[in-house]
Amino acid sequence: MRAAFYQGNETIAVGECIPVAPGPGDVRIRVAYCGICGTDLHVYHGKMDKRVQIPQIIGHEMSGEIEELGEGVSGLRIGDRVVVRPLQPCGSCPACQRELSHICYNLKFLGLDTPGAFQGSWTVPAHAVHRLPEAVSLEQGALVEPLAVACHDVRMAELREGESAVVIGGGPIGLLIALVARSVGADVLVSEIHPFRRKLAEELGIETVDPQATDLERFVLDRTAKAGADAVFEVSGTQAGVEAMTKLARARGRVVMVAIHSQLAQVDLFRFFWRELRLIGARVYEPQDYERAIAVAASGEIPLQRLVSATYSLDELRRAFQEMESGAEVVKILIRCSE
Ligand SMILES: [Zn+2]
Ligand SMILES: [Zn+2]
Description:
The structure is a single chain. This protein is α/β, with parallel strands linked by helices. It folds into 2 domains: 2-143 and 285-336, Quinone Oxidoreductase, Chain A, domain 1; 158-281, 3-Layer(aba) Sandwich (Rossmann fold), CATH 3.40.50. The protein contains 11 helices and 17 strands. The chain has helices at residues 38-44, 94-97, 138-141, 144-156, 172-183, 195-203, 216-223, 239-248, 269-274, 287-299, 317-325; strands at 2-6, 12-16, 26-35, 61-69, 81-84, 87-88, 108-109, 121-125, 129-131, 164-168, 187-191, 207-209, 229-234, 249-257, 278-281, 308-313, 332-336. The strands form 4 sheets. Strands 3, 4, 5, 8, 9, 16 and 17 form a 7-stranded mixed β-sheet that branches. Strands 12-11-10-13-14-15 form a 6-stranded parallel β-sheet, with helices on both faces. Strands 1-2 form a two-stranded antiparallel sheet. The longest helix has 13 residues, at 144-156. The radius of gyration is 20 Å and the shape is globular. The N and C termini lie close together (10 Å). The mean pLDDT is 97. The structure holds zinc ion (ZN) (2 copies). The site of one zinc ion has 10 residues, from α2.
């Protein structure tokens, strides 16, 4: 089978390798599609070289079909169409003991800390596998992972029908949060500086605003009867986004931190005090978020296909990475991992 190896220094080599036989409790999945995530781009740029062993097969936003079952696996069958929740918790740390294994203190992320899905066949623990219903295609299945992130974020925000939400940052995750927020009946606004992303959001029926051209705070106050938004999602990862989030939330509003801020940001803590704001961290997903994402995908209420900008073969993976970083107008690129 084919596999793509990250070799450091923005180098990806695609070659032949032998499928890993599933050990006890594992399954081997023929990988159909694997999407490229922002995290994969970080790896490609060498920003995670301390964490990722080189050479490493990366990739985690996948879908596929079970080809082989390890010893003791029950509830799954060969031929099942599946997606993988790429988390391997330790099972014994304080977070795991509190049923927060998705933020395990020793969490291993499949496809970063272990080999990933940019290969013809991927062997993973069966506990990480979720089955896809007939109504979800394998292409859509490859979007379940980022969709589950959005489902987790919206659930953590406790967003309800009729509430107002502002999403700061309209990349793939921001767009998905906006679509999930709309599906629970919230009134959603996306703040995004890139015209291409605003145009796509608008085409999907999501209202947008360019914060560089419009006074975002005034805009949000005007559409919320001067109250501010019930929930604000910070997805931009920028200082400007952090400054905006405290200005946009209503009295006792919820601010959900989705972006990975690797630098210390300046936060208006006075505003947290003054408006009794609540800051909620939201990281990856729990099993129920995967089930919700699969149900949302099956319902057809979110046009997932519209987020796929291009599909390439595994041998074209390097080109796909280059396209994503060239500033080209892409949202998601899917990689066909087996023919
Ligand atoms: Zn991802
Ligand atoms: Zn743990």
